[in-house]
Amino acid sequence: MLDNHSPPKGCGPLLPLGSAQTKSMRQQIFEHVRAAGRATRTDVIQALGISAGSATALTAEMINAGLLREVESIPRETGRGRPAVALEVVPETHAVIGIKLSEKIHSAVLTDFAGNTRATAVLETPAGPKQLDDVLAEVGKLIQDVLNAADTQLSAVAAVGIGLSGIVDHQAGTVPWSPLLAQRNCDFATAFREKFDLPIHLDNDANMLTLAELWFGAGRAKSDFAVVTIEQGVGMGLVIDNRLYRGARGMGLELGHTKVQLDGALCRCGRRGCLEAYLADYALAREAATALHLQPHESQSPNALLAALFAQAKSGDEAAQTIFRRAGRYLAVGLANIVQLFDPALIIISGERMQYDYLYAEEVLSEMHRLTLNDGRTPCAVETHAWGDLVWARGATALALSAVTDQAIAQLT
Amino acid sequence: MLDNHSPPKGCGPLLPLGSAQTKSMRQQIFEHVRAAGRATRTDVIQALGISAGSATALTAEMINAGLLREVESIPRETGRGRPAVALEVVPETHAVIGIKLSEKIHSAVLTDFAGNTRATAVLETPAGPKQLDDVLAEVGKLIQDVLNAADTQLSAVAAVGIGLSGIVDHQAGTVPWSPLLAQRNCDFATAFREKFDLPIHLDNDANMLTLAELWFGAGRAKSDFAVVTIEQGVGMGLVIDNRLYRGARGMGLELGHTKVQLDGALCRCGRRGCLEAYLADYALAREAATALHLQPHESQSPNALLAALFAQAKSGDEAAQTIFRRAGRYLAVGLANIVQLFDPALIIISGERMQYDYLYAEEVLSEMHRLTLNDGRTPCAVETHAWGDLVWARGATALALSAVTDQAIAQLT
DNA sequence: AAATTAAATTCAGCGATCGAATTAAAAATA
DNA sequence: TATTTTTAATTCGATCGCTGAATTTAATTT
Fold first, then answer.
1. Would you call B41 an interface residue with chain A, using a CB distance cutoff of 8 Å?
2. Which of A157, B97, B135, B388 has its CA 20 to 30 A from that of A185?
């Protein structure tokens, strides 16, 4: 019995769907052409399931606007019928710069509108947290260097993407915390815009690497995958349905601080049992001194320490080996937990420490598979990519490029 | 320099976006009216940002089709101007049945098109794995009971939703594994359709409970939240952007089998260190015998065992208390890991064991918060809901209801 | 009774897309 | 060489979904 005087309270979600807006047909066509490198109108028609009329009209519009062009001078493949004319993105239309900021070296890539790398630059820098102004000065130097290398001016650049480690609020363009910055809660984007007067897109470095995989790497052909990075810390990026997922509140995923051991090893974050406290550089380094029988005063650089530890392990030293083995086992736990919670078809592991093959041994993978339920599903594939800093910067260009593309196509009408 | 003879390989994702299709305006209007219980055309215009003309045309269409109706007989709120006429869903248009299958008791709910519960039914059943045919016979009994209670016939039912524990492939309608079924890889949906000739929607029970929260509970006003259930096992459901997320491969999320301890307690799944091996009924029960100083032959039902253990703990027994405390600490770890990996604004904990307040104590929550990074973000809220089996069944009606709604509105044109 | 106000309707128009008919450019065939 | 076949691309009328301005409707206020 419904009481007519107290209205029914209804059912179903109360909030509207947020980001689910479908891209315009124009943009889908453009992105298909860019993804394919080159595509004929017929390719587009088949791939997107649109009518021939639409393909003609929309491509004509974009050719007119200078975003696409017909490829001449191409030996057309033989066959009956009217030969198809391939389309491609006009690379010169826009340029973007992607930058990866690190402790000791910054890198920059200048990419054209088709996604081709036009120039790169690197800048060595003193380590340690810095003032925002100093970092922006380094960024300015880097931008100038990469512009020189590409033989262009700043005016040709449509947007800049920057990736740095720490907690980054992509939406707001702020950095609540980063090991590179002395201040907390930096309003990085605003300061950047004031200094350079350019659109800026900021993100966590793990997300940048994930974008690099999605735009240029093994992730291009996967709609759902995870990326795990092991460096100073342990980071993670996740692609769901071809889109970077930044967590419900948009501030990135913190695999490094998932707990793998109650009351476990002490982490940089001050808590115990974080995954990163068993895997990251500092975690290995602090046990290395013990394994190498170093006196407290015999301090070395962390990298040298790790290299020595690795050599010791390779030469058969039990203490050194056990450090890597334990790290490998906890890595397996971390990967297994990702599989249980997201069930991706692929996990990509990436990082500077790739050479420490103990971490990436068959043993670790088989332990990961032993730790996961797999009721009839294809086991999750794991790939390891040993990519340099420039790839991170390239991921940053993808961030800028997708924003510039959105804008260029939106203002077509 | 680009070589004109080797085409550029392109950049960007190669696969099209999958589920991102926006709902039709009709459906958005309908769902807004149903979510609000009642809404005027002006409400709809404001909520969805559409023109008055569209509102008139589209609501007229749906009124015509019998999906919506104007609410007469309502004391219209006073004020100047032409009074607004409220719209509501016509409840009689369709009916759906939601069913939750459990070890010892099955429950069913019959819901009308507006989401109102029209009738309920429960059926006690012998425990233990059964043949698919036997389960379907029980389902048939349950459907008949709930139809009788609602004074309707099967022909009035538009679809059935069923939730059961285990690994369930919602898309395919199959059950790779469930504690309720003797066989593996059951083609449940096909068998159901053959027997009842009705549309069927199958899902994991944790997902059903999550849908119940999204459609009828605390999740209605949240676009992103997680639900954790602790019962025979530990389950999890996740809502991302107002939609149930089933994992990249659509087979649900396995929080219960994330690892919280290397070489830890033995789990039902045969692996060690699963969260569920510290939290689920069987995990508590197997330590209870020790704490209660029972002889091996003094066997009790698991529920009685847990009740005795709880009483013992309440009376101050250290051994009994330590069982609950350890479970509580691992629960904190599991929740902390969800927060690190998804960063939801809300986690809802639900399950039959809610009365064991050790698990839901302030202590557990504060331990969870101690275990998570929170750089300036609002800490994740945790709510505990002690809901009965009927709510799970109600979640199953939501699954059926949304499918029936999609269909009813799609065939409007 | 007239003026005011807010809700709802009507309708011309626009942009996006489809689909059938047509044109274009090549190879195959007679 | 002229004709046919084949495939790509274009043109153009029709439709759909929606907007926005003008209008109508139903109430309150003056």
1. no
2. A157
Closest residue to D12 (CA, C1′): A53
Q: Between the CA of residue A32 and those of A37, A40, A215, B52, B369, what are the distances in Å? A: 8, 10, 12, 37, 45
Q: Which CATH architecture does the domain made up of A94-211+391-410 adopt?
A: 2-Layer Sandwich (3.30)
- The reply to whether domains A25-89 and A94-211+391-410 share a CATH topology is no
Across chain A, what does the average pLDDT equal?
Answer: 90
> Residue B392 region, left (φ>0) first, then alpha (ψ -120 to 50), else beta?
alpha
Nucleotides on chain C within 7 angstroms of protein Cβ: 4-12, 15-21, 24-28
The closest of A242, A94, A106 to B20, measured between CA atoms, is: A242
pTM above 0.85, yes or no: yes
Q: Which nucleotide across the nucleic acid strands is nearest to A52, CA versus C1'?
A: D9
B1 has pLDDT over 50: no
Residue A76: nearest nucleotide (C-alpha to C1'): C26
Joined tokens for residue A172: 């707001």
Domain definitions of chain B by residue range: 25-89, 93-211+391-410, 254-344+352-386
Q: Count the Cβ atoms, other than its own, within 10 Å of residue B390.
A: 18
CATH topology of domain B93-211+391-410: Nucleotidyltransferase; domain 5 (3.30.420)
From the list B9, B220, B249, the residue facing A377 with the nearest CB is B249
For residue B3, name the pLDDT band (cuts at 50, 70, 90). Answer: very low
Interface mutation vs chain A, best among B111, B117, B259, B397, most A CBs within 10 Å? B259
Indicate the CATH number for domain B25-89: 1.10.10.10
Q: Is CATH 2.40.290.10 what the domain over A254-344+352-386 is classified as, yes or no? A: no
Dump pLDDT digits (tens) for A344-396. Answer: 999 999 877 666 766 667 888 899 999 998 776 788 999 988 878 899 999 99
Non-local (6+) Cβ contacts of A400 within 8 A are A96, A97, A98, A158, A159, A160, A161, A199, A201
